[in-house]
Amino acid sequence: MTEGTTPSAAAEAGDTLTRLEQEGEIAADYLEGLLDIADLDGDIDMDVEADRAAVSIISDSGGRDLQKLVGRDGEVLEALQELTRLAVHRETGDRSRLMLDIAGFRAKKRAELSELGAKAAAEAKSSGEPVKLKPMTPFERKVVHDAVKSAGLRSESEGEEPQRFVVVLPA
């Protein structure tokens, strides 16, 4: 127990970690079954990142087969993430915020979006004008918001799904 935490706060943090680890285990079992059905090879890696379970399917063979599970611009990956969250919900009764990555697609996308957010922040700083970005998914917007915040500026989302987009505001 760390200094300044109560026994119940430490137990609650441990319960959360255990719950997230359980989510990861359920998701891994579900995804292993899916890989077997699809006759695809992949290793499953589980972690806990930012208060959510994170599960990745990685391939030793470069991941060409796994690209089928990513789809065009991650559309299949998004659907599989939703199905995996539903499988976890069915087992636990709790809504899951689990993140799924396949063949490093999300990790690569996160790096690209962080760079986009940093560039938009630099543009807003130099021009003094708001910078509007193209419509993005909630995951993509979150990454851009975080990058803008790191650059010391503020951003907000505007519009309605699926045309919701980020606006980077000058200081």
UniProtKB/TrEMBL annotation:
Residues 107-171 form the R3H domain. InterPro entries: Jag_KH, KH_dom-like_a/b, KhpB, R3H_dom, R3H_dom_sf, R3H_KhpB. CDD domains: KH-II_Jag, R3H_jag. Pfam families: R3H. It comes from the Bacteria. Residues 151-171 are annotated as: Disordered. SUPFAM superfamilies: R3H domain. This is R3H domain-containing nucleic acid-binding protein. It comes from Streptomyces cavernicola.
